[in-house]
């Protein structure tokens, strides 16, 4: 089921299979799910930061977001079917959410980028339920923002606080939620904001 690259267990899946067999059923069943998408830079970061490594190892699924990981797996004789990029998973989840009535919280990036990303998501995915949004420049020790996300009762939480910070935020807060698919999305709001 997984392929281990530098102590990180990558889930052995294609994008379509991951969505169909994991994400969509978890949304339908209101199961909690912490997804990490990791590229080689990310894996190297876990080597240098043991606390971060523990956070990544606590995720339900780590996806290979980079050909570097796919190539490393192939050299080890344990091929992964394809690269599964975080931003593509985010787009597919937004599409599925809009079509099935799941709500999404957008946490992270600058206020301007966050606002534009949400506006573009609503345009690209008509009917999308936005549970809420907030920029990513807050003190994580201040629980007010997390309270707000919890109270919005989202089905999906995209966290764009940059590598490490976003995964730590999810790991620190996921126990407070009854349901939700949580994923760190790095610079994806900056892309979605156009
Ligand atoms: N970001 C944020 N709060 C922070 C630091 C970064 O919201 O304290 C956002 C930043 O605006 C960007 C995203 O996180 O939209 C990814 O940042 P960056 O590319 O620096 O992170 P990386 O994932 O490359 O480490």
UniProtKB/TrEMBL annotation:
Transferase listed as a keyword: yes
Organism from which the protein derives: Salinicoccus sediminis
GO molecular function: hexosyltransferase activity
Keyword Cell cycle annotated: no
Coiled coil: none
Protein name in UniProt: Acetylglucosaminyldiphospho-UDP acetyl-beta-D-mannosaminyltransferase
Keywords (A to Z) from UniProt: Glycosyltransferase, Transferase
Domain of life: Bacteria
């Amino acid at each position: 089921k997984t392929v281990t690259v530098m102590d990180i267990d990558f889930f052995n899946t294609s994008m379509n299979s991951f969505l169909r067999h994991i994400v969509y059923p978890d949304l339908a069943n209101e199961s909690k799910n912490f997804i990490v998408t990791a590229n080689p830079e990310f894996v190297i970061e876990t080597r240098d930061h043991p606390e971060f490594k523990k956070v990544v190892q606590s995720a339900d699924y780590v996806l290979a977001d980079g050909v570097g990981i796919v190539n490393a797996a192939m050299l080890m004789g344990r091929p992964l079917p394809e690269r599964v990029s975080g931003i593509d998973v985010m787009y597919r989840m937004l599409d599925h959410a809009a079509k099935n009535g799941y709500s999404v919280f957008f946490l992270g990036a600058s206020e301007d980028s966050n606002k534009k990303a949400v506006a573009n998501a609503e345009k690209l995915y008509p009917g999308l339920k936005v549970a809420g949004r907030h920029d990513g420049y807050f003190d994580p020790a201040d629980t007010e923002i997390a309270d707000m996300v919890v109270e919005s009762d989202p089905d999906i939480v995209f966290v764009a606080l940059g590598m490490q910070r976003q995964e730590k935020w999810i790991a620190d807060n996921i126990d407070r939620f009854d349901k939700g698919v949580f994923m760190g999305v790095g610079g994806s709001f900056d892309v979605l904001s156009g």
